[in-house]
What we know:
about 120 residues; alpha/beta; Glutaredoxin
Amino acid sequence: MATLNLTESTFAETIQGNSIVFVDFWAEWCGPCRNFAPVYEKASEANPDIVFAKVDTEAEQALAGSFQVSSIPTLMAIRDGVVLYSQAGALPQEAFDNLVQAVRDVNMEEVRAEIAKSEPQPPAE
């Protein structure tokens, strides 16, 4: 599957409509971004059941800002609407492949339980 170009208007729909989404925040002028692009593309071809998307931080400054992207490339992994990974820096192929597998392996029931524990509870009456 080819990578998708995300915009502010397509971001939420893409995240909500897919189980696993990787997002690469990048810019044309960024050398490390260009070096990471073939690694990202290879992973997208090897994992057709996962959405691999890109956000051009020059064209989508508000979207990048809403995720506090201050350094590129920044890679984000989202599963069932929950951000599981967000970190700046390009990964070598093996490390990225390991990350893809780790996101697949996450027990989302446990993640949702942890999120529920951390949410403020209404006061008891």
